[in-house]
Fold these 2 entries.
Entry 1:
Amino acid sequence: MLRIRKILKPDYAVVRIIVIILFIGLIIIVTGIIQSVYVPQWIEQKEANHMHEVSYQFSQIKQSLDILSVIEQKNAISIYLTLGTSDIPIFGSGRTYDYLNILKEKCVLEVSNDTDSYYFSLGTVKYTSKNSYFVDQSYILEAGALILSQSKESILNGKPFFSVSNFTNLSLNIINISGLEGKTIAGGYGTYSFYMEYLSSCSYIIESFKFINITTNYQNAWSIFFDSSNLRDSGLSYEIKNISDGISVEFSGSLGNLFLKVIEISAQITPG
Amino acid sequence: MEKTNITVIETFRTMVLLGISIALFSVIYLSVLTIYPSPNSPSVNIICSVDEKNNNITIEHRGGKKLDLDIEISITIDDVNDKFSVGDYLDNDSKNNGVWNLGEKVVYPAENITNKKILVAVIDLQSNSVIMVLGFQTGE
C-alpha cells in the first residue's frame, strides 16, 4: 500500500501543474483573441459614435452662428465640443486625440463684374479627428457653410443664407470667424467650450455680377451649394467650374445684383 | 532493480500525461482560434430621399465607411419589389473609384411614386446585416 502511494504522489503533482498550465494557456488564448478581434471592433464602434456626437455639436455651432447673424446684436453663445474618445475599460486601449483650429484667411470669396473685383478673406473653424480604426473626418465651418470632409471628398451639411429675388438678384450672407489670439488651437482628449461673439456686419451691393469664385479645399461641398434648387429655378444662367484652388461660378445672359452681407464673429476655443 | 523499474514507470506515465495534455491543449487552441466573429455591420450614415416631381428615389452616402459596390438595395413600391446593387445606379464618376463613398448618390428611377408606399432597405451581404431600412408614404 505504501509503495502504491509513493508511486502515485509525484503523478498528482504533475497533473496539477499540467492543469494550471492548460488553464493559463486557455486564458492567454481567449485574451489574445479578444484583443485582436473584438477590441478593434469595439473601438471602431466607439469612434463612430463619437463622430456622431461631434456632428451634432457642430450642427449646434452652425445654428448658433445663424442665430447670432440674424439677431445682429452684441451677444455671445458657447457650445461644448468633445475632442477624442476615452479608452476601453480593462484593455486600456483606444484613446484618441482630436484637434480644433480657428484658421485665418483660409477661404477667399471673390465677386467680380465687368469693372471691379471684390475680395473677402474669411476665417474658418476646422475640427480634425485622429481615429485609430474608424475613418477620419473633418468638420469645417467656412463662410457660414458647414462642411463634412473625409480624405478628399466633402459634402455640404449646412448652407449659409442664400436666396433669389426677382429671378436674377441674389442675396448671400457669409460669416467671417476671427479667432482671439492665443485661443485658436486645441487638441487632445476632453470637452472644450467654443465661444462665439457677434461683432458687426457689413452689407454690399455688387451690380451685374459675373463671377463668384471661392478659394477652398472643399470644391464638392461648394458645388453642391451653388447647384442648389434656388439657383436652378432662378432666371440666371450659370456654369460651375472646378479650378485649381477652389470653384468658380460664371454667370451669363441677364445679370442681376448680388446683395452680400458679411457678418463678423469672434470666436475662442479655451476660456479666459 | 526495483528502483529502476519505478523510475521507468514514472517517466512513462509523465510522458503519457504530457502527451494527453498537449493534445488537449492543441484541440482547445484550434477550436478557440477558429471561432472568429462575422464582420460587423459597417458604420455609415445613409440618407434616403424621395423626389415625387421627378419620380426618383435617392440614397446618399453621408459619411462613414466606404462601402463596396455590391451592397444590395431593395426597393418595394406598393408590393412590387426590385433588388439591385449600388453599382447599378451610381453615376460613372462615382463608380470609378470602385467604392460607394461620401457624397455619392444612388438615384433610382421609379415609374410613378405618387400616393405609393415605399420601403427601402440597404443590405450588406458581407456582414449579412441591414444597414438601413425605412418606409415612406408619398402624397400625404
Entry 2:
Amino acid sequence: MQPRRPELKYAAPREQRSAWPLLVIVLLAVSLLGADSWWRPSNSDEGYPSRPLQSESEPVLSPPPPIDEEYFPCSDCHEDELADPERRELDEHDYIKLAHGDLWCLDCHQSDQRDLLHLSDASPVRMEESWRLCTRCHAKRIPDWRAGVHGKRTGYWRGPKQYRTCVVCHDPHSPLFKPLEPMPPPIPAGDLRASSREEEEVPHAEQ
Amino acid sequence: MPNSERKARSTSRRQFLKAAGAGVGTLAGVPGAAQAFDLAEFFQAHFRELSREELEGVIQRLERKYSEKFGKAVTVDAVGPNDGVLFGYGLDLSRCIGCRRCVYACVEENNQSREPQIHWIRVLEFDRQDVIRGIDFEDGNPFYDHEEVPAEGKVYLPVACQQCENPECVKACPTTATWMEPDGIVVIDYNWCIGCRYCMAACPYGARHFNWTEPEIPADELNPNTHYLGNLPREHGVVEKCSFCIQRTRHGRYPACVEACPVGARKFGNLLDPDSEIRYLMDHKRTFVLKAELDAKPKFFYFYG
C-alpha cells in the first residue's frame, strides 16, 4: 500500500505558490506570440538579432568568440580586388586546418567584400551572423537547437537562459568537436582513504 | 492502527526519550559533551513533520553550526516544490565525450567529501563493440585515464541518481529518511538517516554513497548556498546522492552538471511542460532508461541526438 503523502508544511506560502501557473501561462503566451519570427534569417541589412532578446521567455545569445585581431578585419590586408578562386596551398593562414566537408575558402567567404561571408545565392552575411550560412547546409539542426536539445544552454530552466550560436562550439574551419583532457579518474573503493593509506604504507588494493 | 492512536503513542515515546536524554545529559555534565552531542539535533522531528517554527529553528541552528565550522556565512534553504513541476533529465549519449567535467562541477556545487573522495556522478567507459549488444554494467570502467577523450572505439555513459518514480531505495529505508518529493526529486533527511545503507543495497544504479568517515571539504571550496535536502554539509555516517541540484533547480536554475558539460549533452526540465527541452527530446529522439526491466521508472532519460 502506498503511504499517503503528508502535507508539506515547509512549502512556500499558498498565495506565492498559486501565482506560478499564471506566470508560466503569461510567459508561454509571450513566447508563442514572438517565437515564430525571431530566429528566422532576415535578409535585411540590420542583421541578427533584429530586436533585443532580453525578455524572460526568450533565450539570450552568447556572443560568438572574438576573431583573432591579427587576422580580422580581413580588409586590412585584402583589398577589394577579386580573390583567386583556385584551390591551392596558402602562404598565410597556415593555422587554419580546413576539415569541413569539401569546402574551400570562397565557398563561405565573399570574394570581393572580404570582411563578409555569403550564402549560396551570393547574398552577403556578416561574420556575427555566420549561423545563417551554417543552417543553409545544416538546416536539420535548427529544430533541435531551437528546442535547446542541440547545443548547450545555461542559466534558468524556467527563466532567462543563454544559447550559443554554431561557431561558439564549432570551429567553422574544422567543426568536429576537439578531444579534451579528461579530469582525474575516481579513486577505487579499496583506496578510498588514499592519503592515510600512503602514511601506513599499505600496498594499494587492486580494484 | 488508527492514525490518532499512532500519533499519541509516538508522541509519548518521544517525550519519554526526551526526558531520558535530558537526564543523561545532566548526569554527564561534561562541558565538551554539549558540543559533540546536540540534544536539539538528536531529537529533531522528521523533516516533513516539522512545523514552520520548528523548521526555522532547525535552519538557524544549522546555519550557525556550519558558518562557525567553515568560517564563512552558510545559508540553509528549505524551499518546497513548485506546483505543476516534475523534474526530468536527458543525456545525449551520442555527444558525451567522457571528460568528467560534470563530475567535478557536481562535487563543488554539492559539497561532496574530498577526502575520502565521494563522486555522485560516475562516468562509465564501454567498448563500442560491447554496447552494440546492450549495456552490461560489468563491462563499464569508471577508472579510465587517457590523455585525451573520447578514446578510440570507446563510448561513455555517465550515471548518477536516476530519480526513479518507483524508487527502491525509498522502500528499503527503515526510518523514512529518504522519500520522493512532489516534484519528483528523491531526497534524504540527513538528520534521520541512521546509516544502515539498506538504500545503497537496494539502488540498482549504485547512485548512493556513504560517509565512512567525517567528510573533509576545504572551507574555501565549500558552496555556502545550501538546501536542507540537498548540498547541506553531511556528517559522518549518513548516505548521500544526487538531488538534481535541488538548491538550484527549485529556484529555476539548471543543475551544475548541465552548465558544466562542454558538449551540451545534458538536458533538464519540467516533464509536465509540453514545451520543455525534456519533453521535446522525449517526443523527437530515441530515448531509453537504464535497467528498464526493474520497473523503477527512472526520470533520467538517455538519448541519441
